[in-house]
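INTERNAL AUDIT FORM
Audit reference: QA-55
Scope: verify that the stored structure record matches its stored sequence.
Auditor: D.O.
Record contents follow.
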Amino acid sequence: MANSMMKISDIKANPNNPRIIKDDKFKKLVESVKSFPEMLELRPIVVNKDMIILGGNMRFKACKEA
């Protein structure tokens, strides 16, 4: 399936996400999303048919924070 834009409110975080970044690294990711939003085109958030994130949980969280 091709890349497509969707509302962030339609996407669901994966409750089984094995990765978590905290504090300074998360703040840097939020700033990266703000200053270089094109990054999300290069590293998109990947979801399954149920709109649950398969890849990009921390980018999703940073987008919501931004």
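Auditor finding: record pair retrieved intact. Residues 17 and 57 are 7 Å apart (CA to CA).
Action required: none
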